[in-house]
């Protein structure tokens, strides 16, 4: 089966919501995933990608946050929950999914920030991820800026 951009977009959408729920409720990861399968039409989402993002962020949280934290103007704990979930997810993607161009990762996170985040969250998320991508994917970013 060919994975479509739409299926990946849906996976990111659900992964961001699952990460938000995990942060807010502190529930068990497997319980959150089961709830998402029960409550959402996951048939149009790339389920493997959803799992990779959701569990990948949770299992590598310290490493993920330490990658974007230097670019913040406030502590991670002071971020709104949507921006925090998006920065975690997109940073994990930048670190672990070299098959996805950094611009796609950033654009998808910005689109979700526009949809779910507070006012101007998309600008904040874009700025932090742009700097994080320059750190994590220096060669790709430099080649793109030539």
Written overview of the protein:
This protein is mainly alpha-helical. It contains 8 helices and no strands. It has helices spanning 5-25, 29-39, 47-59, 61-68, 81-96, 102-116, 121-136, 138-144. Helix 1 (5-25) packs across helix 5 (81-96), helix 3 packs across helix 5 (81-96) and helix 7 packs across helix 8. The longest helix is centred in the N-terminal third of the chain and has 21 residues, at 5-25. It starts with a helix and ends with a helix.
List the SSEs and their pairings.
Elements: H1 5-25, H2 29-39, H3 47-59, H4 61-68, H5 81-96, H6 102-116, H7 121-136, H8 138-144
Helix pairs in contact: 1-2, 1-3, 1-5, 3-5, 4-5, 5-6, 5-7, 6-7, 7-8
Family: Belongs to the NusB family.
Organism: Biformimicrobium ophioploci
InterPro entries: NusB-like_sf, NusB_fam, NusB_RsmB_TIM44
């Amino acid at each position: 089966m060919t994975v479509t951009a739409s299926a990946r977009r849906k996976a990111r959408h659900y992964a961001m919501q699952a990460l938000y729920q995990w942060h807010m409720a502190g529930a068990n990861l497997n319980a959150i995933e089961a709830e998402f399968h029960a409550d959402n039409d996951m048939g149009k989402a790339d389920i493997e990608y959803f799992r990779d993002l959701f569990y990948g962020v949770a299992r590598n949280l310290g490493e993920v946050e330490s990658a974007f934290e230097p670019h913040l103007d406030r502590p991670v704990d002071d971020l709104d929950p949507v921006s925090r979930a998006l920065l975690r997810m997109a940073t994990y993607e930048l670190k672990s999914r070299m098959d996805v161009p950094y611009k796609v990762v950033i654009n998808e996170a910005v689109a979700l920030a526009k949809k779910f985040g507070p006012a101007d969250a998309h600008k904040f998320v874009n700025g932090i991820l742009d700097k994080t991508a320059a750190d994590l994917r220096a060669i790709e970013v430099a080649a793109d800026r030539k």
